[in-house]
Amino acid sequence: MNGDVLGTLAAASAAAFALAWLSAVAGFGGGVLLLPMFTALFGLRVAVPMLTLTQLSSNGARVWFNRRDLNWPLVGWFTLGAVPCAVVGALLFAHAPLEPLKRTLGVFLIAVVLWRRINPHPRRPADRTFTGLGAASGLGSARWSSVRSMFQRISRGSSRGTLR
């Protein structure tokens, strides 16, 4: 490997570590902040799948460590919308022109910040509503990878929507 690649990977690793620490302390934000960093380092077409894999491993670990506390029926409702819409979102991402993707990503990131400021403590929706939330999360995550932060405070007594 040449020095440029190693430097880029070192910068990405350092950013991921620092933002994981920040996310652990703040309770959210790692993915939303890591996406612009990965985009600057690797370009949007590489950054979204790279961040998706990063988030998948992170969230997979959370699921494993919290498996006894998960609200499995709620996970089922969420998955019912998330999986098919993630496939559609991934296909749209793979075939969409790059410039509109960059613009919609910028609008999305600004919308996340505004939504969190306007509505910091959303009320918990009914269980079946999680199918729609899953659909929005699946579609958005496949296209922008950081949608989870909009939904993570919806809870049943905890900071995560699918925990009891």
Key terms:
mainly alpha; globular; 0% strand; 164 residues
Write a structural description.
This protein is 76% helix and 0% strand. The protein is mainly α and 164 residues long. The longest helix is centred in the first third of the chain and has 24 residues, at 3-26. The radius of gyration is 16 Å and the shape is globular. It starts with a helix and ends in a 13-residue tail after the last helix. Residues 149-164 have low confidence and may be disordered.
Q: Topology, pairings included?
A:
Elements: H1 3-26, H2 30-42, H3 44-65, H4 72-95, H5 98-118, H6 129-144, H7 148-151
Helix pairs in contact: 1-2, 2-3, 4-6
In short:
With 164 residues, the protein is mostly helical.
Number of helices: 7
Q: What's the helical proportion of residues?
A: over 70%
Mean pLDDT: 79
User: How much of the polypeptide forms β-strand, as a percent range?
Assistant: under 5%
Count of DSSP strands: 0
Based on Cα principal axes, name the global outline.
globular
Poorly predicted residue ranges: 149-164
Order of helices and strands: HHHHHHH
What is the terminal-to-terminal distance? 47 Å
| Rg computed from alpha carbons, rounded to a whole number of angstroms | 16 Å
Largest sheet: none
What structural class is derived from the secondary structure elements? mainly alpha
